[in-house]
Amino acid sequence: MEPDDGGWRTIPFKLQLDKPLASHVCLRLLIFLLLSSICFALICDIYLNKLVRKDDGMVSREGFACNGPGGLEKYAYLQSSLSGPKYANNVLAFEFFHFESSLWPEMELSDSPSDGHIVSDLVRVNGIMTRLTLTLDGRLVWMEAGQRCLWLEKEVLGFSTEGSCIRIRAAIEFDEVGCCVGPGGGGGRRVVRRVLACETLSTESFTLWCQKLRDYLYSLGRPKKLLIFLNPFGGKRSAPKVFEDEVKPLLEDAAIEFDLQETGYQLHAKEIAHTVDLAKYDGIVCVSGDGILVEVINGLLERDDWKAAIKMPLGMIPAGTGNGMVKSLLDSVGQPCKAFYATLAIIRGHKRPLDVATISQEDKKFFSVLMLAWGLIADIDIESEKYRWMGIARLDFYALQRILHLRRYEGRISFVPAPGYEIHGEPASFSAEWAAPSQDHGEEQVDVLCSGYQGPKIKLEELSWRTIDGPFVSIWLHNVPWGSENTMAAPNAKFSDGYIDLIAIQDCPRLSLLSLMTEMDKGGHVKSPHVRYLKVKTLVLEPGPRTDNPAKEGIIDTDGEVLARGKGAYKSDQETFMAYGRLQVTVDQGLATLFSPK
Ligand SMILES: Nc1ncnc2c1ncn2[C@@H]1O[C@H](COP(=O)(O)OP(=O)(O)OP(=O)(O)O)[C@@H](O)[C@H]1O
Hints:
The chain has 14 helices and 26 strands. The chain has helices at 13-52, 71-81, 92-101, 203-219, 239-253, 268-275, 290-301, 306-309, 324-331, 339-348, 376-383, 393-404, 443-449, 510-518, and strands spanning 59-60, 117-125, 128-135, 139-143, 147-151, 156-162, 165-174, 190-200, 225-230, 257-262, 283-288, 314-318, 351-361, 364-368, 371-375, 409-417, 426-428, 465-469, 474-478, 482-484, 487-488, 500-505, 531-546, 555-558, 561-565, 583-595. The structure holds adenosine-5'-triphosphate.
């Protein structure tokens, strides 16, 4: 090395260090790029999976769009669900496409759609030219890597148009191994939202397809306009989010119009149901717990035109603490109690009748569709309110407390058993005192004197009555199987059998009681030898005081609300709709109508 100015020497720094440094930096950069691509791919994968397997791993929200070979547009649709351009040009999109492509429902090739069809034409489906056929039995059939098929009734939500493109929006149910469940299926494992883009080749074809699809969907009797009640304070206050995220997109896919009404206070939904112009709607939907449904039913039955009003189909979306009705509906076809499935049931427009129980005391009437409780269950339901801060755990905590300090109540139940349940209780003759005043009048007179529904017209004195005298631990009446999402109160209850299930406990050791309470999530409690489980047509309840303290009476609770509080009961200073005394329950078979998954 040559000496430099000031004794410094020039070090051939670049020559000696630059090359290794450059290759070192390049290598690092390469590793960095490789690692970040892997990370990016993983993050995308997790994100996309989250989209596909939302909440319970059952619901997918991706879709397809038209043109091209399908994949690019599909990716574009996906991208619109993601945030920002960072996902552009990512290889994952194509991987996702290949994964998705196999998920269009396949059809047996032997089943030729050309045998009978409503319309059949050459159309570009997801960018591929193919013959698209709408069969007489309501299937859309086309070729796309095999013969594909969509059932209009079960799978197609609706369609929209854009230029010459018809976008058919569907929700397809697949089983665990990825096979389409089809119209007969029920317990599907996951539902995928899809868009089938059909580009017609002429204006005539476009008009014909739109008309035939519209006619077919209209013929299914689906709702076109709904009145939707949303209780922003029900349950975990999740109703607005549930509606925006899960209900609204599906209603939009199905082109169902709606008027949204938030409930502002207690009984608001009842007031509206009582006065609203029902001719504007094809159904009323409650995004809430059971409380709003019960208000709507009471509002409809108090109208002068109750006979027509109560035929309005009612839909439930679970967004409350007690979602017993919608749980009963969805569980009956093996579907989870989720807003997504509940919304699909409403869109598809299937209906089922629902029994309505009239609870009468003097001239007062309350219409119940779920349950009535007196004794242990009512005490747990209502008194556990003081532990609301515990969340849902308050029920178990307070149940334990109530069982340890078990109360028994004096009283009597008199009932007309359903055929096959006559062994319960002792024979009794009908007492005129049991009848509500309106039942003393002739039928014609009742209709003239009172507006609104007055309860079923039954000749009580002509029925065979039976009686059970107390003390009682618990009396529980149930109209549908589930009392809440995790309480299968009455496993044999039917929506419209014209009977109400009675679950009565008179005497039961504390340990047995504790064990049968733990079986309520599966309905096992009704098998206990300490439980009477029967069906009744009508029932008269005469509640009395506690056996250990005659100065204290109990609570009667119906559909989650307190109907009556006795002397010395929890919050007995609060006014209730009925007095703690004799009341009568009668059932009107299939009076109301529910939107139902089947
Ligand atoms: N804006 C409001 N403020 C207060 N109460 C309301 C409001 N809207 C409705 N309510 C009342 O809330 C009650 C319960 O509503 P909802 O059916 O949604 O839930 P739930 O599961 O029955 O009960 P929870 O309130 O324990 O979740 C209804 O009886 C209704 O009268």
